[in-house]
Each structure stands twice: as structure tokens, then as C-alpha cells.
Design goal:
This protein is α/β, with parallel strands linked by helices. The protein has 18 helices and 13 strands. The protein has a 7-stranded mixed sheet with strand order 1-7-6-5-4-2-3, with helices on both faces. The protein has a 4-stranded antiparallel sheet with strand order 10-11-13-12, with helices on one face. A two-stranded antiparallel ribbon has the order 8-9. Bound molecules: pyridoxal-5'-phosphate (PLP). The site of pyridoxal-5'-phosphate (PLP) has 13 residues, from helix 7.
């Protein structure tokens, strides 16, 4: 496909609008705006008619794979379908024209939405207080860990260690480090859950808490929560739950009831707001009473029928975001929650679990399984057998693109060799799951019949196999343009 720049399509005098003849006297721009503010020469803007603009951007929009185009089983990322009603309602002018500096009296609707979103998220997670400010899951982790830090400081003790299982999401150790902690890694046992004996050995008086991704990045439910809670209580350490995978637990269990002290959610995963390409995101952090008074300010509160911003938490860790966080994402998540309703949430979790298990059983005779127990919303395959026959996980991932399917997450988690982490989400039909299973089997068969085709894949995408190491090491795009 020959895609030109918008400036290359541009032709002098072409325009995207047709206006009726003026029925008032025409004024020149100099009569309306002082020349001090006018440019000396006109701006270099593309001149393109509306239909060509549409075609240009529609064609660009399908160059990259996206969730509106086809299946996107990218493990840990929850690329579920983003309902368009979320977009329509977040685009209402009452929301988009609102200024965050506006007085509370004229922002009651927005504050009510934030308040009700807070209440819904608290009910879903089983906690007692929440901040909507963090702008990503990872920022939520940082905030949660700063709360943990503050908790120990408020008790006048220095705790420097955060325990992180090796099946945790990669952001967990990074956030703990950023919050000033040292990371102590806890290995997984044979079934992929935390090894309790190793955990016990790691418990020292300087441990501040543990960060559990639950379900873990292996898609496995950490079922030994009560035992872990008991161990943490023995040294008054706290329990952080990475709740980015909350879509697997909706309506089935609540992390607050399970004994966690703090959680972050990813509105841009579990709650269907769009994501990818670096943002925007929203990672609310919910806590129990131990950490309530340290939350970032302001919190949205309600007195009678009046909603207001409460800055009065005197032990607060401060502000963590400009104004109140990514409001437009809150609108989308709120619409989603109201649309799904209470009973719907449990169905989301059940379907996300059934879909993952369906693909797992369809592929387990062809590919090796990372771990076979307790599969929740995602699972990990290993391409070890395929690698021995010539095609690595990366090759299989690239070949999937030729079938119009986004690859799974590969080479993560690190504890599974040739890992392919598959998360179908609840929004896919049985036909789509069947198609994926079929394609994965076809690629496996092709290893023995047509290996080179897999090694050279992808063949049908706008660009072929990229030099990914070069791209990571050499951030100069001109380098690649020159090379191609
Ligand atoms: C995506 C994810 C994160 C990080 O969220 P971001 O919004 O990308 O920062 C953290 N933990 C888990 C388990 C995740 O899946």
C-alpha cells in the first residue's frame, strides 16, 4: 500500500468545506485581529478535500493492528473491546468543555460522576477509600507503595524491603524501586503460586510489605492468601495487590475481603477504556482503613446532595497528578460500570476465565503448557517443542500477523521458556477462539512443511520483520528510514 504524507496529497487551493455565499459584508482578517497577533506569511497547512482526508486517516488507522480490527490476545494487557457508547458519552460537551479549575458549584455533575465511580470501585474491590488520580497502573503502584512507606513512617520505623514474587508483573519491582525500596524476589513453587517456605525464609524485620499480582502473570490465582496474610501480620507488613487483572475476579471475590491492604486497578484494561500506544490511562488506588488517611488529595466527597473536593487529609502523601487525574477515562469507566450492572460483572469474570481455558485445552496437545493449574483469564504456553523444530516463540508471533491476529505477549513471564502469554478476554466469540486455535495449529504443522515462510514472517503487513534490537538501541528514526 502506497501511503503518502498528508502534505504530499496536498494541492494548492483544495479545501474540505463548501460554504454558502456571504450575505453580510466581508471583512478582512486585519479588521478583526490586531496585526501584532497575525503571522507574516500563511501557515504551511495541507490543502486536502474532506473525502481524501477521510481516506488518508482511515487507511493509516488500519496499518497497525487494533482491537477494532481483529483479535488481540496480548497476555496481561486485557485488550478487550471498548464499547463505543463510552466514547459517545465521554464526548458530551458538558464534560469536554469543563475546565478543571472551575468552582465546585458549577462542576457538580462531574464531581457526582467521580464520587459514584469511587463508590462503585470500592464496592467491586471491597475497600474503604480510594483515589482516582493515578494516570496509569504503574503510577498506581507507585502511589500504593508510597502509602505503604508512609504507614511504616507513621509508626516511626524504617522498612526497606518489598517482597515481589517472580510471577509478578514487570512494573511491580520497578515501582517498588522508584518508591525507594529494595526488592527481594520470591520464587514460585511447582504449581506457579508463591512458594510459602521461601516466603517464610524472606521474612525479616525490615520487610515493608509484599506485592502480589493476582491472578499472577501466569494467569494463576494465588490461593494461599490467608497464609501469606498471617505471615505478614507477624511483622506488621502490608499486602499490596496488583489488581490490573481484576477482570478475572469481578463479582467472585473482593481483594479487600481477602485481606489485602491496598490495590490498584487499571480502568484502561478491566473497565474497557481504550489503551495502547502509551496512554492515556487511569490507575485508581483503593485502600483499607490502615492507609486511608495517607491518600493523595483531593478526594471527592458527598454531604447531603452536594459534592465537593476534600483536601483535609492531614497525613496525605500529597498530589500525584495534575488536577484530578484523567477525567475522560473516568467517564468511560463509569458508563461501562452502569451499562454492565452488578450481575454483569460476575459474567465478565466467568467468560474471561472460560475463554482462556477453552483456548488452553484446544492447544495443550500442540504446545507445551507453562503451568497447568488454576487457569484464570490468561495462560502461558511454551514454544520449546516448536523451537527444537526450528521456530521460536517470536517466529510464531510474527507469523500470526499474516492471519490478521495480534500475537500474544512473548518471552514473558520470564519463568517460562519461549513463553507465549495468551489473554483472549471475555469479549471474543467462540468462533474467534476456534479460529485462533486453528491458526496456532496450522503454524505448528507448517514448521515441518514450510519453515522458511515462518522465519521470514510477517508477509502481509505494511513492514516486514523489523530489527527490534536495533530499534531499541538506536532511537533515531532516520537511521531506519535510511536503512530501508
Ligand atoms: C498492565 C499491567 C500493569 C501496568 O499498568 P500500566 O497502566 O501499563 O502502567 C501492572 N500490572 C499488571 C498485572 C498489568 O497487567
Amino acid at each position: 500500500m502506497d501511503i503518502k504524507l498528508i502534505f504530499e496529497i496536498s494541492r494548492e487551493g483544495r479545501k474540505g468545506h463548501v460554504l454558502p455565499k456571504l450575505d453580510i459584508k466581508q471583512k478582512s482578517i486585519n479588521e478583526l485581529i490586531s496585526t501584532t497577533y497575525l503571522r507574516n506569511s500563511s501557515a504551511d497547512l495541507p490543502q486536502v478535500p474532506e473525502n481524501e482526508i477521510m481516506r488518508h486517516y482511515v487507511n493509516l488507522s488500519v496499518l497497525n493492528h487494533n482491537v477494532d480490527k481483529s483479535f488481540y490476545p496480548l497476555g496481561s494487557c486485557t485488550m478487550k473491546y471498548n464499547p463505543k457508547i463510552n466514547e459517545q458519552l465521554s464526548a458530551l460537551s458538558g464534560f469536554t468543555q469543563l475546565h478543571p479549575g472551575q468552582p465546585e458549584e458549577t462542576s457538580q455533575g462531574a464531581l457526582q460522576l467521580m464520587y459514584e465511580l469511587q463508590q462503585s470501585l470500592l464496592e467491586i474491590t471491597g475497600f474503604s477509600a480510594i483515589t482516582l488520580q493515578p494516570s496509569a497502573g504503574a503510577q498506581g503502584e507507585l502511589v500504593g507503595l508510597l502509602l505503604v512507606k508512609k504507614y511504616h513512617e507513621s509508626k516511626n520505623r524504617k522498612r526497606t524491603i518489598i517482597l515481589v514474587p517472580d510471577s509478578a508483573h514487570g512494573t511491580n519491582p520497578a515501582s517498588a524501586r522508584l518508591a525507594g525500596f529494595t526488592i527481594r524476589t520470591i520464587p514460585s513453587g511447582l504449581d506457579g503460586t508463591v512458594d510459602l517456605i521461601k516466603l517464610k525464609e524472606s521474612l525479616t524485620e525490615d520487610v515493608a510489605g509484599i506485592m502480589l499480582t493476582n491472578p499472577s502473570t501466569l494467569g494463576i490465582f494465588e490461593h494461599q492468601i490467608a497464609e501469606i496474610r498471617e505471615m505478614m501480620d507477624s511483622i506488621d507488613a502490608l499486602m499490596y495487590m496488583d489488581g490490573a487483572n481484576m477482570n478475572a475476579l469481578f463479582g467472585i471475590v473482593r481483594p479487600g475481603d481477602m485481606g489485602f491492604d491496598v490495590i490498584h486497578l487499571n480502568l484502561h484494561k478491566s473497565f474497557s477504556t481504550p489503551h495502547g500506544g502509551g496512554g492515556p490511562g487511569s490507575g485508581p488506588v483503593a485502600v483499607n482503613n490502615k492507609l486511608k488517611s495517607f491518600l493523595p488529595v483531593p478526594i471527592v466527597t458527598k454531604t447531603g446532595d452536594n459534592y465537593s473536593l476534600d483536601y483535609s487529609l492531614n497525613e496525605t502523601i500529597g498530589k500525584v497528578s495534575g488536577y484530578f487525574g484523567n477525567f475522560a477515562l473516568m467517564v468511560r469507566a463509569y458508563v461501562y460500570i452502569r451499562m454492565i450492572g452488578k450481575d454483569g460483572f460476575r459474567k465478565i469474570a466467568e467468560h474471561s476465565i472460560v475463554n482462556a481455558n477453552y483456548i488452553k485445552s484446544g492447544l495443550k496437545d500442540t504446545y507445551e503448557l507453562g503451568f497447568d493449574s488454576n487457569t484464570m483469564h490468561e495462560f502461558v504456553l511454551s514454544a520449546e517443542k516448536q523451537k527444537m523444530r526450528g521456530a521460536k516463540a517470536l517466529d510464531i508471533a510474527k507469523r500470526l500477523l499474516d492471519f490478521g491476529i495480534h500475537p500474544p505477549t512473548v518471552y514473558f513471564p520470564l519463568i517460562v521458556k519461549e513463553a507465549m502469554m495468551i489473554e483472549p478476554t471475555e469479549t471474543e466469540s467462540k468462533e474467534m477462539l476456534d479460529r485462533f486455535i486453528e491458526v496456532m495449529k496450522e503454524i505448528d504443522t507448517d514448521i515441518d512443511k514450510n519453515l522458511q515462510k515462518i522465519l521470514d514472517a510477517p508477509h502481509t503487513t505494511p513492514v516486514g520483520r523489523l530489527d527490534e534490537v536495533g530499534a531499541a538501541r538506536n532511537l533515531d528514526i532516520n537511521y531506519f528510514l535510511k536503512k530501508s
